[in-house]
Amino acid sequence: MTVALLTDKYELTMLSAALRDGTAQRQATFELFARRLPDGRRFGIVAGTGRLLEALPHFRFDDTALAAVADFCDAATLDFLRDFSFRGDIDGYAEGDLYFPHSPVLTVRGTFAECVLLETLALSIFNHDSAIASAAARMVSAAAKRTLIEMGSRRTHEQAAVAAARAAYIAGFTGTSNLEASRRFGVPALGTSAHAFTMLYTGADGPDEPAAFRAQVAALGVGTTLLVDTYDVTTGIANAVAAAGTELGAVRIDSGDLGVLARQARRQLDDLGATGTRIVVSGDLDEYAIAALRAEPVDIYGVGTSLVTGSGAPTANMVYKLVEVDGRPVRKRSSQKESQGGAKQAVRLSKPTGTITEEVVFPVGQRPAGPDAGRLLTIPLVREGRAVVDVDLASARALVATGLTSIPWEGLKLSHGEPAIPTRTVAP
Amino acid sequence: MTVALLTDKYELTMLSAALRDGTAQRQATFELFARRLPDGRRFGIVAGTGRLLEALPHFRFDDTALAAVADFCDAATLDFLRDFSFRGDIDGYAEGDLYFPHSPVLTVRGTFAECVLLETLALSIFNHDSAIASAAARMVSAAAKRTLIEMGSRRTHEQAAVAAARAAYIAGFTGTSNLEASRRFGVPALGTSAHAFTMLYTGADGPDEPAAFRAQVAALGVGTTLLVDTYDVTTGIANAVAAAGTELGAVRIDSGDLGVLARQARRQLDDLGATGTRIVVSGDLDEYAIAALRAEPVDIYGVGTSLVTGSGAPTANMVYKLVEVDGRPVRKRSSQKESQGGAKQAVRLSKPTGTITEEVVFPVGQRPAGPDAGRLLTIPLVREGRAVVDVDLASARALVATGLTSIPWEGLKLSHGEPAIPTRTVAP
User: Fold this and answer.
1) Chain A to chain B, count of Cβ pairs less than 8 Å apart?
2) Residue A193 is nearest to which of B1, B13, B179, comparing CB atoms?
3) pLDDT tens digits, residue range B229-238?
4) Can you give the three-state secondary structure of chain B, one letter per residue?
5) Where is the Nicotinate/nicotinamide phosphoribosyltransferase domain (chains A, B) (predicted)?
6) pTM above 0.90?
7) Domain ranges of chain B
8) Chain A hits for B337, Cβ within 8 Å
9) Predicted-assembly ipTM surpassing the 0.90 threshold
10) What fold does the segment set A192-298 form as a domain?
């Protein structure tokens, strides 16, 4: 299915104007980057690269798409679109890498015509996915190795939910509630039951939680997770162990003071002999609540709303700017929106311990010399329109994990602050 | 294409457990509602109804979907899913209507099996679309009849962008930058050019803004909108009128102090004789910035990030709760999450002037009598699985417009406060 209409009208009107006088064929370089991190954030996680590479071959104007733009595109533009596929080159940061203000996350080279058409789709993918992955990575850091499950599908657009599950997995979440993310991206799908299931077992005599738990165990086995807070947590836990025995997989608590309830639940489970039964907590958790529960006997966090809404920063606010035309650097001079022209690459410097110290952005081909040459962050992603890297969530996950250990200690604080490392831009 | 996997795994595990013992066939009523409005908001706008009705016939488990769930669903569950289509009834608020805390926005009746499967998809659609429409309506109110254009596609997931454009249009925006929203929903598509187009006209002698403007006017006519802030706004306006003449449609300013620049631009345009040329402003506008520009000579607002992210409230936080099983009211008793059981309807009371005064939620069939019977908000949407209302954006737009004029004056204030009218829940 085409993705070509997931774009803004003005890209096509610009194309139309540029085709008339031949400027559409000028060689252009566009750069996708964030001028700043979301308010107070100390690092960002690049996500969306794989989804963009998967979308690229579908950025074609089929008959439906052509018909949709025929009322404002002239014949020459329609002819161009009919034959269009992106044949340029793309470099960029690997998916899962850290990014900071002015990191050249993506560099798109080709004719103006082909590069300008990708603007909206590329930004939509990176702005959404990076926002989610960046929030998710803070939660992963706050969880200090405990398991995180993404369960926010219901709080965001139904397709954004799928991408959010993917981004959370890249950031280090263990799985998702979302079935389509499991099918499409192989993210492990998790989940057992909601309050509605327990309430379904209501008869003339009122609620019958034991019957609900027995039914769930009969269907899903004793290793399942029973939701124990529909009526009363203490009774719920007693009912849960009565139904499943001491081999019960886990109990989930979705409301109340989760720290207090987790302690009580642990004690009650242990007293009942269910010492291996794990405790899942959920309900309006964000990175701060997760961190606040560190001292409590919580085994698994279920995170919903705050994950899919980027925990206060629902978009990464990346922009896609023309930086070079026919080899000449160009830049805008509008107030407060200055950026350096010319195509760029970046390296990240670190101490021998692995702790990162500086992001250095330099004009292409002018990598700074020195005893610490740093790690080159810019890698080839697309050549002549074809992806030259594999879309591999495992690699992206590994890169996030490495990245989080490379951030200076202060940079992992959840409080608002400056970026964890400075970005230095080398002038041409 | 199926939408059946845009759901959470636990709905299928619940289904599986409930099919084993026959409880899946119990008659159930689920209610979709918001326990509260987003922080400080005074009203919400229902959006998503039309999208849910359109999605409903596609909620089928085809071979791909069945294969995706085969590893955790037993044979009986797979058989059920293979034949599944929703055959129940849905009542709810009309799309575009106002809602308040505990308004029964949607009521879904059928077997537990068929109702529980819709949970995630219904919530995703309503939580996203209502969040956007609610934020958009505040902007529409703040704009005081001036034109608003939605241009935030690049700041949100590429499919969420399409739904956001639709929701903004329902709320009263005039159009969108998004081409797919235009094709799929008939939202007027708008837009002319970006800074990149102006910068494309850079030669050995440097930038050539006049050439860019001439090219755009040649392609799009003098009625086009020229973006004048790439280099210098005053020079840009002079170049714009030189290229298009005094019949120039509009100039757009995308950066800087928009109020000051709009005043200067108006004066300059008038001095040049371009008295009919309109002024479009954009760049990080939200409802507060829009309101602050009321006294300035701004004709059109372009709104991006704040629109598609719900202006601080990216999700409507609606929930989908089982309220009735086999005719018996049921409810959860967890801490802080109490809600009244039983299927409900609602009326909205108003003064003779049309100003609304109270939302009254009552058990189905127990509409309160009285001199002011109010307007019944709950209408039939689906009967035996088939939509019984037309999906009609024009009606939804009209309903929002009427709704905004019906809100008491204090309820339209942009500052944080209580809901514009109280909700009264009538006990059974």
Assistant:
1) 337
2) B13
3) 999 999 999 9
4) CCCCCCCEHHHHHHHHHHHHHCHHHCEEEEEEEECCCCCCCCCEECCCHHHHHHHHHHCCCCHHHHHHHCCCCCHHHHHHHHHCCCCCEEEEECCCCEECCCCCCEEEEEEHHHHHHCHHHHHHHHHHHHHHHHHHHHHHHHHCCCEEEECCHHHCCHHHHHHHHHHHHHHCCCEECEHHHHHHHCCCECCCCCHHHHHHCEECCEECHHHHHHHHHHHHCCCCEEECCCCCHHHHHHHHHHHHCCCCCEEEECCCCHHHHHHHHHHHHHHCCCCCCEEEEECCCCHHHHHHCCCCCCCEEEECHHHHCHHHCCCCCEEEEEEEECCEECCCCCCCCCCCCCCEEEEEEECCCCCEEEEEEEECCCCCCCCCCCEECEEEEEECCEECCCCCHHHHHHHHHHHHHHCCHHHHCCCCCCCCCCEEECCC
5) 148-342
6) yes
7) 9-132+313-425, 192-277
8) 255
9) yes
10) TIM Barrel (3.20.20)
